[in-house]
Design goal:
The complex is a heterodimer of chains A (378) and B (301).
Chain A: H1 9-14, E1 21-24, E2 32-34, H2 36-40, H3 42-61, H4 65-91, E3 99-102, H5 104-124, H6 128-147, H7 155-162, H8 164-198, H9 200-215, H10 218-235, H11 237-241, H12 249-273, H13 277-285, H14 290-320, H15 333-342, H16 345-372
Antiparallel strand pairs in A: 1-2, 1-3
Helix pairs in contact in A: 3-4, 4-5, 6-16, 7-16, 8-12, 8-14, 9-12, 10-12, 12-14, 13-14, 14-16, 15-16
Chain B: H1 2-21, E1 23-28, H2 31-46, E2 51-58, H3 60-68, E3 74-78, H4 82-85, H5 97-112, E4 114-116, E5 126-131, H6 132-138, H7 143-151, E6 158-161, H8 162-166, H9 171-178, E7 187-190, H10 195-204, E8 211-215, H11 220-223, E9 226-228, E10 241-246, H12 247-252, H13 255-265, H14 269-280, H15 286-296
Parallel strand pairs in B: 1-2, 6-7, 6-8
Antiparallel strand pairs in B: 3-10, 4-10, 5-8, 5-9
Helix pairs in contact in B: 2-13, 2-15, 14-15
Classes of the chains: A mainly alpha (378), B alpha/beta (301).
Chain lengths: 378, 301
């Protein structure tokens, strides 16, 4: 570890001085801070501090970024496990309504270790395939950790236990909303973008219209769609049979689709018009038809720009799908809005954390895919 | 003629088939919406009526719009909200429980083909709750008594949002009607504060708070040992929850009216506080809380 990133050692080393956990008599009561010693007991707390000190020293002397990454990852694992273990010990012998959540010390240590890990990974300059493998490893490790029961006494996991069936159901609707509307927008947006490269006159007005759509607040757009979709469902049996309703998933799907169009269409246009003139002239000179030139020259060269739009749209959709819960579309937003209604932070987190994890993993995978494209920037 | 009627009925039924076979039960996304929606759902399910669960669908405008459009068939609404649906918020009629219910029932029947079923005898309106250890020694259960007590030098410190303190229909209306005035020292104003924050302040006696702005059936009230003051001069609009159902659905399943009547009649202010508290404070799923309440009280026959 070198340079300014070493400054992160300071918050990491001082984190044991902050409350490690927060104890609440019930899920909406005021939290009472618990120090590392109070949470883990004196002996284990001393061991934890020693392990932390050892980790910092090892990081300071790690010469290769890969070692740094491994040590930082181990630190993160240790911090999370300590929180899980601490929660079980604080929950022992208290009423089941009590809740234990991570405190400031946990978060400071976790964020510092995560930044150290990100820095080490960046300096490893991994190839796209390795990056994909790392994402897979992180997902598998997270799944193993969550299913092992080591974290089961943490407040968020208690919320999960009370709603495990609903969690997976909402997760499935969330994925369907975000990825389904993305796929539909790609199918419609890329051909539209290609068509616009040939009709420069229409380009301004279509992109202007899409930009205008983008500026409508999501809640307003959802609301505006209830009436026309409800009318369709009532008057077209076929639409009704397809599951189109004024409330529920349909308006959310349509709204996400509309929001997705601008980045996809705009980047398709930019990508194709950005193909160097010398290349297109060479293609024309070789006697390629317009269709051949499109599929063999223009689209492949524009692909990195188009996939970049795809990445933006996917991450945007995963985040925005949460708002769909307000019109009965389901998704992780259900927990966020129920949690806000109950002033229960843990329930809000049960919806927010998987959304963030999903968006980060998707973004990392898409980044790696962009890197794998010929000519793509790594 | 009869044959034409039968035919058109059959055609309508086959077109509307998927829509009308199941009773779509819905509710608002908040805590009480979860409890009331699941109560309705459990009662209908138990009676063998086919239902579709759209409980905790969304915010009030969304649920209301969905009901009027026929996307959902039944959901619990508050009588006082009818004042806003029909743009008549300024009228005094909404401050009387019976009149407000009758007016809401009449307007929705005339204009939207909706039926308001039996309401719960609970009023989830804006008000004030006082710590039990303060209210009981002082003998305060109604706002009139509270007004006399405060005017006579009672030691009160109210935690409230700035909206509650400043907006004319809230605290100023209470003060005018009940003849008391809270000095700035007797107020803790939480700008943008919600009832969760004010109840917490009174419960923990933060800065000496011993009273809080609340909604009548807030789930935290019971565990926080607060008592809600009765608005005995009807200063605030009454917000009684009642199931609102599409007339068409009720015609198909007329038994729904009698099925839900005993359930909603059993939901007093304290009962709703307790049920909301189980969801909000203990973190239990609303469906389990509803099922348990109905079973324990013999309401599933």
């Amino acid at each position: 570890m070198r340079g300014g990133i070493r400054l992160l050692f300071l918050p990491l080393a001082l984190s044991p001085l902050l409350p490690f956990a927060v104890f609440r008599a019930n899920r909406i009561a005021q939290g009472e801070p618990r120090s590392l010693v109070e949470t883990l007991g004196a002996g284990p707390a001393a061991l934890a501090v020693a392990a932390l000190a050892g980790g910092i020293a090892a990081l300071a002397f790690a010469r290769r970024p890969a070692w740094g990454a491994a040590i930082a990852a181990a630190l993160i694992l240790g911090i999370v496990l300590a929180a899980g273990w601490g929660a079980s010990s604080l929950m022992a012998g208290v009423p089941t309504q009590a809740r234990v959540s991570p405190g400031a010390g946990f978060w400071v240590a976790l964020v510092a270790a995560a930044l150290l890990l990100i820095d080490a990974l960046a300096r490893m300059r991994p190839r796209p395939a390795l990056r994909l493998a790392l994402v897979g490893f992180a997902v598998a490790a997270g799944a193993l950790l969550l299913s092992s029961g080591a974290l089961s006494q943490l407040s968020v996991m208690q919320e999960y236990r009370n709603r495990s069936a609903a969690f997976w159901r909402e997760g499935a609707s969330h994925l369907w909303l975000a990825f389904g509307s993305f796929a539909a927008a790609m199918l419609a947006g890329v051909p539209l973008g290609i068509a616009l490269t040939r009709r420069a006159g229409a380009r301004g007005s279509v992109l202007g219209l899409l930009t205008m759509l983008q500026t409508i607040p999501s809640m307003a757009l959802f609301g505006m769609l209830i009436v026309p979709l409800g009318w369709l469902a009532a008057n077209l049996p076929a639409a009704h049979a397809l599951g189109i309703r004024g409330i529920g998933a349909a308006p959310a799907f349509v709204a996400l689709f509309l929001y997705s169009l601008l980045p996809i269409v705009a980047n398709t246009v930019a990508g194709i018009t950005g193909v160097p003139r010398s290349v297109t002239e060479a293609a024309d000179g070789m006697g390629l038809t317009r269709r051949q030139r499109l599929f063999h020259v223009d689209v492949p060269l524009a692909l990195p720009v188009i996939i970049t739009a795809a990445r933006i749209v996917l991450v945007q959709n995963i985040g925005m799908a949460t708002v769909g819960a307000l019109i009965g579309a389901g998704g992780f937003g259900t927990f966020v809005f129920q949690g806000i209604g109950q002033t229960a932070t843990d329930l809000i987190l049960l919806g927010a954390l998987p959304t963030v994890a999903l968006a980060s993993a998707t973004s990392a995978v898409m980044d790696a895919l962009i890197g794998m494209l010929p000519g793509g920037a790594r | 003629m009869f044959r034409t009627l039968m035919l058109s009925a059959a055609v309508t039924a086959s077109f509307a088939g998927a829509a009308s076979a199941q009773v779509v039960v819905s509710s608002k996304i908040d805590t009480e919406g979860g409890v009331l929606g699941n109560l309705i759902l459990a009662v209908l399910d138990h009676a063998g009526i086919e239902t579709e669960n759209r409980v905790q669908l969304g915010a009030t405008p969304v649920v209301r719009q969905a009901l009027v459009a026929g996307e959902i068939d039944i959901y619990p609404e508050y009588t006082g909200n009818a004042a806003y649906f029909f743009n008549r918020a300024e009228e005094p009629i909404w401050r009387n429980a019976a009149d407000a219910y009758a007016e809401a029932k009449k307007l929705d029947a005339e204009q939207n083909d909706l039926v308001w079923l039996t309401p719960a005898p609970a009023n989830n309106t804006w008000g004030v709750a006082v710590r039990r250890d303060v209210a009981e020694p002082a003998g305060v259960t109604t706002f009139s008594q509270f007004g006399q007590w405060v005017a006579g030098g009672g030691n009160v410190k109210l935690a409230a949002s700035s909206e509650f303190v400043n907006s004319a229909p809230a605290l100023p209306a209470f003060q005018a009607a009940y003849g008391f005035t809270l000095s700035p020292e007797q107020l803790i104003v939480l700008s943008g504060g919600d009832t969760a924050a004010t109840i917490q302040a009174a419960s923990n006696q933060t800065s000496g708070a011993n009273a809080a702005m609340v909604y009548g059936t807030d789930g935290q009230i019971a565990v926080s040992n607060l008592v809600v003051l009765e608005d005995d001069k009807n200063v605030q609009p009454v917000y009684q929850p009642a199931p609102v159902i599409r007339a068409e659905t009720l015609a198909e399943h007329p038994q729904i009216e009698e099925l839900l009547k005993p359930v909603f009649e059993s939901l007093t202010l304290e009962t709703l506080q307790e049920l909301n508290g189980k969801v909000q404070v203990d973190g239990l799923p609303a469906a389990d809380v509803a099922q348990e309440y109905l079973t324990a009280n013999g309401l599933l026959k």
